[in-house]
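Handoff note, outgoing to incoming analyst
You'll be picking up this chain. Sequence as last confirmed:
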Amino acid sequence: MEPTPEQSPHHAYPDHWEADVVLRDGGTARIRPITTDDAERLVSFYEQVSDESKYYRFFAPYPRLSDRDVHRFTHHDYVDRVGLAVTIGGEFIGTVRYDRIDDRGRPASAPADEAEVAFLVQDAHQGRGVASALLEHIAAVARERGIRRFAAEVLPANNKMIKVFRDGGYTQRRSFEDGSVHLTLDLEPTEKSLAVQRGREQRAEARSVQRLLAPGSVAVIGAGRNHGGVGRTVLRNLLAAGFTGRTYAVNRAFDEGLATLDGVPAHRSLGEIDEQVDLAVIAVPAHRVPEAVADCGEHGVQGLVVLSAGYAERGADGRELQRELVRQARSYGMRIIGPNAFGIINTAESVRLNASLAPESPARGRIGLFTQSGAIGIALLSGLHRRGAGLSSFISAGNRADVSGNDFLQYSFEDPDTDVALLYLESLGNPRKFTRLARRTAAVKPVVVVKGARHSGSTPPGHAVPVSRIPDATVSALMRQAGVIRVDTVTEMVDAGLLLAGQPLPAGPRVAILGNSESLGLLTYDACLAEGLRPRPPIDLTTAASPQDFRDALAEALADGTCDAVIVTAIPWVGENGEAETGDGQVLAEALTKAVAGGSAKPVAVVHVEIGGLAEALAAASSTAAPRPRTVTTAARTRAATTATTAQATTTGTPAAPEATTEPAAPDATTAPEAAPHPGRIPAYPAAERAVRALAEAVKYAQWRRQAAVPGKVPEFLDDTIDEAGAAALIEAQLSTAPDPRGRPLTHDEARELLGRYGVDVRPTLPAPDPEAAVAAAARLGYPVALKTTAPHLRHRADLGGVRLDLADEEALRRAYGDLTDLLGKPAELLPVVQAMAPRGVDTVVRASIDAAAGAVLSFGLAGAPSELLGDTAHRLVPATDRDAAELIRSIRAAPVLFGWRGSAPVDTAALEELLLRLSRLVDDHPEVVSVALEPVVVAPQGLTVLGASVRLAPPPARSDLGPRRLPNY
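Most recent structure output, in case you need it:
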């Protein structure tokens, strides 16, 4: 909305305060500032509020607003007087207002930092979380305007409002004065207020997806009379799946005399239906979609699945149509799957919903599937069906203009019918939120992700998302840190999903291999080693082995305490007549199923070659379609929430150093399989590499789960050696001299001073514009010294001869200076410097940078070719914990160099871990530090030396993840 002439030009309408939010029941609403144009809306809103609510607001009977009241409540300066409204369908359902006051409670202006706040919510919308959402947003507005405290007077009988303040998580004080409760809230976000906010966000967004997946009634808008067509196909799929709710066909082209279509009521519009419709599937041309959405909104539809194409995938004009579609739907409180969607499926027996273009509804199972591509969705559904796997839910979001993978994670986290969440993603609209939600979900159930469009350098058509500059390898590392199982292909995703949904998590990397083919066993053994597992020598049952032999060998391996998982390899066995029996696999499947019937705590996978029907028989014998009781304990949920809030869960990867844990530990309660009355489905694979890769992912995930249950910490000793206030003063002073919003790089001395405030000592360098200056610098620093160029094209390029080391005296220094300038150019071009020599060690590089979309990232690698040529660099999100720092060092492939490779002396990794933690604290405490590079960092057997440092400061990017809840607007 635009400001009116009556509003002060100094305080223009703050459109960045506008936000779409999801309410407690899963519906959406819009929060925006109140303007002078809202007088009629305010009066209409007030007329619909009960006398009791009016009494609670004004402490006296107040049947109507006077003209003076209306003027006061609609005229704001957006600084000292601010009003926000929650709207649905353009009408107010709730309001909040603050007025800045002084210490005596009188109207005031800045620098007064307290404000009086008051709420009013329509009775019909109370209990939907309207006031809680308003409190979050008005608090954020107040902080932006320099207000640090809210004061509120509440009648003792107004328990609902008192609860809103009490449950907000803010630090508060309460007193009873003159017959009312006086509340004072400190508006600085606390760990508790952030946890409350995210908990409400999770429940609301999960509920919004649940409303879409479990409607009581569905209308297909655009179902045609002729066979074929998108709408008619969806209608028939709904009926074929046995949807338990009511179904309607809607098409404005229907003849007035048409009563039914495919046996369901047929109508020309939603207004003809005599009950509220929960879900509408829209399958009409794009130019008719706004009309259909308006019809849905006017008649109380809760959610939309838009199959229609012609939106952002068509370019700029289509993207604007897509944005308008989202704005229109949200204005009515509806969420959207799509546009250009393939549809949704819910196999729960109480729902049986197939509102998609998939001709056959999958079997009921324990896997939840989200995809941003209809074609990939078709392939995944087909692959899972072919291998006998069932689904709990399926969402194909198309352009995912609204409901996204983040919403699906919110839903999957608490869905009791989902044990594993599989996601095919082509873009991450909010990477910070994705990693937070994935970390919390992964703490209680596996999350497997395939990321498409990794190397295209552009966003897929139809996906209007913020651009992230971080490379795909970094994205992968950050997902691993969050506990996400990231795989490269949809085939690998299905392979991992089948194992994780049907089998318990392994307690460690030790693998028993048994089968009737020595060659297939050896291939499996080699694959295990390649994936970092610890296989035992394969047990060869010989080609004469019978199904009973398989059963006995498997039972023995499951009872063996020296292995954590079992892979069974099988080829057609030889019968009594000496001929190979290919069979249908039924007999072998029964034997293997009986071996695990006792409820083994070890995962089992089968690798088979040319045994017809074995995979199908295993699926039939023990299918994911059979629901298993699964209870996430309160303790598990608490750990998950703590893991997500503190960002301290870590990934493990393949151990790369002696310190890395490889022996199995007792599984945590959240990772141990729940008791099940029937054994899980035994997954079968046509190749050893596929089975082993899936098992390796399960091993790494199980180890992450155990470690995430006991989060890492930031050592307290850092606090004693860090001058946060001093660093803040330096940063403020440096930025004040840089009017460029892109900020500025610091000089060497400025960077040394800033890093020194956090206990990072950078070895000084002295300029050497001529030989005499070089000699004077060496005399000041003390021999031996190093002479090196600092020209951008030669920096860190020892291979080009730009660095001369161990210069022991003046003669050696002068000779090196002459050689350097003769070889590479004039001193003015080379910018040579002199630096005291550091103890010998391993050259490493430590970096930290802030990506506007993903957040602050800490990186580590060996200097030179390993990191620059081979990309051997590890990454972690900031803030990093002691465990993050230890694993960051150990997760690069070249890590053995740090731990005594080929008889060399191990270096001081403890000092390196401390450096990583200090740098993490710096960029976490001061988001203005947008990039830091320490190169090289020479790590010796005792201590380390930072020889070079570059720092860039800039105004910090906005942190959407720390503000009040809001839906993204792409």
